[in-house]
Amino acid sequence: MLKKEISEVLKQILFFILVITVLPGFLRITSIVADQTYFDIFFGGLQVWLLFWAMFMGISLFSSDRGQKGMEYLLSLPYSRLQIFVFKILPRLVSVVIFFLVFLILYWSGGEDKAAFSLLAFSIVYFSFFLIALSLSASSENFIFLSVFSLFSLIMYLWLIFLAYRVAWLFKDIPYYELDIRPFFAGTLDRNISGHILAAAFFLLLPLVISFYLTFTKLDGRPPKVFNKRHIKYLIPLFILGFITSSFSAYKGMNVGYGSYYLTQNHKLIESNPYSDVKIYDGGKVYRLKGINYFSWPFMEENEYVYDVWYEKIIRFNTSTHTVEVLYTIPPKKRWIGRDIWKYGQTIAFIEKNRDFTNIQLVLLDEHSKHVKRIPFDRKPLSDYPNPFHFGTGKQDDKRFWLVSSWGGWRAGKYPILILWEDGRIEDFGYSHGRPFYINQKLITTSEKEVFISREKEGRFEVIEKIPNSKGYRFRIGFYTFKNLNPFPLKELYGYKKGSKYARLDLETFEIEELSELKRWPMGFYPESGYYYERDQAASVLNIYRLKENKSELIKSFKMDFSKSESDYYFTPGGLIITQRSKVRVFAFPDLKELKFKRL
Amino acid sequence: MTLKIYWKGIQTMNKQIVKIENLNVKIGRKKILDNVHIQFQKGESVVIAGRNGAGKSTFLRCLAKVILPDQGSIVYSAEVTPEKIGFISDRISLFENFTLKQGIDFHTSVFHLEDFDYTLINQLKLDLNQKIKGLSVGERTLYHLSLLLSQKPEILLIDEIIHTIDPYLREQFLEAIIDLMDRCQTTVIMINHTFSEIEKIPERVLVMEEGQFVLDEKMETLGEKIKRIELKEDLSEEIPCIFKRESSFHKEYFIYPFKEELKKAFPYEFKDLSLNEIIKAFVGGQYAKKRNQ
Predict the structure, then answer these.
(1) Which residue, A209, A226, A216, A232, is CA-closest to A62?
(2) By CB atoms within 10 Å of each CB, which of A76, A492, B51, B223 scores lowest?
């Protein structure tokens, strides 16, 4: 019996090999496909041919016996149904596996670039197609019907895999995720998702195989509808179980749904997830901001307001009323420059360009009236560098000025500086070696060996202080603070030089003091305090220090497993957030006391 | 040509070879076999008759394991291993793409046969290298039978096939079966509609209707239990009649079960029936019953 089945499969294999090897040669010789090598044509079609092969191996389980009118003879042979099951399936399964192995060898021997689908997608579709076709093989005596039905079932099966993900995402409360099968075929899925798609595919396929086996043990000479009825009877509960398991697997495995969090200075927690509504945890309650499903890192926080960019809009969260307001929508033909958005008073300032990179403008948005004023400054030397940014503003004799520079000067150590005056005048201040700042109504620029303190005088900026900086420290300001251009007194700046020590620039005495104990870059949540952290990898401890007037003080230590990729920690103006997978802990500045939020 | 096949007097061993209990088979919602209970003895020859769709073939397929019952049991005696059951379907199911030789090799291998009896094949002068699908229906039937004979089956199940083959091959077919029963004490259960050629073969006659056996009689007593009366008037309601046939000249009544007392009580001429007529009466009776329903 096994010999008969092997012989049948071998004949089919020979025919298949003949087709897949001769056809590309024919296409090449006849120049129907002229600009490709034989291997290109061969491998290009191989994936598709193999899918047909997998399907054929499945649905042909009984086609030969039926075609020869031998079903009753087969069933009357002195074998149990299990033996018949094994005899019939084994050679077909082996052939399918062998062809898959051959495909893998070809794939890794230069075929990868010519593959139509990703290896994961192909593997799932290939084996699924075989097993689906196999499980349907006894469902009808019509070969064409079986082929079409197998293909339809495969499409349904793939759709169900993604539906399992959809269900999982709904349970994860991330309803905005769009199901897209293209990354699955293109192989651009996240590795973690790939693993769970494989698991979901398995759990959805298993019921089909089990149901087919159970039905096969009762296969008999009655019409296929009897077989189908029994198959469906087994399949439905098993399939529901499989679907739940698939969804659960997807649910457990997905980490794309983990939110990111932002703790405000008034201790409200904003949860953002690309696929879900933004939520504000305020004490014991959770407020959803319907229709806002994502925010990036807020660029500003002031009183109860948190400012952010959402797609092409500047939005403002009110953490007291738990509402959101759109302040500005970028015009269709404009684009952001670096999305650096600043605020002073009630004016939000940012830089826009036309989409063709012409007409650089400083845009001033009044957050209350939403009135917009544009100041063009598309001129040298700034236009020689990409990505201009706005870093300060002030007033002189009731005339406002704005300071702009360019991130493009970073590599060359040449930050060009322009001062845009309200009367339309543009003052060229030259270059700074390090990034310029405008703090305490003073412009701070550097050369390689000096720090310059300048201030406006009679409509022009003049250097009022030169501070030696022989070691070339580059001073910076905390990443959050500099978005807010509202003046507040700042006492110090911290700087470093690669491979050297850290230094502190006292903004009252203009003295540079060397520091040595700082192990990480301080985060400047001024004016209250600066903070920095130290990661003690060996002890698995995260130490948080407060830094003020050159005094550092350990506030708290946290035990953390840095080896786990799911673990993360980050600081916001309100405090520290530690996440491990879906578990979130929140600690508030200044003393890092843990905050508890219900339903977090 | 009239065939005269005579039963050679094979003695039933009176040993139960298969016991069927509570057998139920459904197709969709339709009950094909309905709670069938029956037993067969070793060496017994049985003919099953019944109208089309009565469940005969399904019953035979259940015995051959081609159909697995939804409910009930078929218990064979120890000597009836799966290799010892032979089944010829009315569809003459074989792997037709095989040559005769390949078919023989396959069958020999699957049924673990040490040798193969080519007698029938030689008698028919069949070319072993030709494909099975090239054989006529009759040749294919004989070829299939030759495969089964080599199994020396304990039980041989023959679905309605005899009437499809020509008289010459039919004679060979039946002779081969009789020879088998003679040699191996094989139990033969066959479905047939026409009995003129095999009248002397069956020991036991079964009639199936609506998935149940409505007649199960030994051949030797069957003739005594069913009689025919020809009348011009209506039959007394006291006489059990299974089938009535009317013509413009007379009315025919088939009486079952017949008892000798009826002869004394009624002045009718109770005539004997051939097996063919008996089966016709039962089948006709079932059709009439169905029509009345």
Answers:
(1) A216
(2) B223
CA pair distance A210, A460, nearest whole angstrom: 84
DSSP helix/strand/coil, B102: helix
The tens place of each residue's pLDDT in chain A, 600 residues long, gives: 788 889 888 988 898 888 888 887 777 777 776 677 777 778 878 888 899 999 999 988 888 888 888 888 999 999 998 899 899 999 999 999 999 999 899 888 877 777 777 888 888 889 999 999 998 888 888 888 999 999 999 999 988 888 887 888 777 666 555 556 666 677 666 666 667 778 888 898 999 999 999 998 888 888 888 888 889 999 999 999 999 998 888 777 665 556 788 898 889 999 887 667 788 998 788 888 877 766 677 778 888 898 888 778 888 989 899 888 999 998 888 887 666 788 888 899 888 888 777 788 889 999 999 999 998 887 777 777 777 888 888 888 788 899 988 877 777 778 999 899 888 888 888 889 888 888 888 898 988 888 999 988 877 888 998 988 887 777 776 554 445 655 566 777 777 766 666 778 888 888 888 876 556 655 655 545 567 777 777 788 888 887 776 677 888 998 887 776 667 888 887 888 988 767 889 999 888 899 998 877
The verdict on a CB contact (< 8 Å) between A220 and B110 is no
Chain A, window 69-88: residues with a beta carbon less than 8 angstroms from a chain B beta carbon: 69-79
One domain for residues B253 and B189: no
The alpha carbon of residue B88 is apart from the nearest alpha carbon of chain A, in Å, by: 8
Counting beta carbons within 10 angstroms of the beta carbon of residue B241, is it exposed (0 to 12), middle (13 to 18) or buried (19 or more)?
middle
Indicate if A390 and A371 belong to the same structural domain: yes
Q: Within a domain: residue B276?
A: yes
Domain boundary among B159, B191, B218: B218
Contacts of A528 (CB under 8 A, 6+ apart): A589, A590
Contact assignment for A3 to B67 by CB distance below 8 Å: no
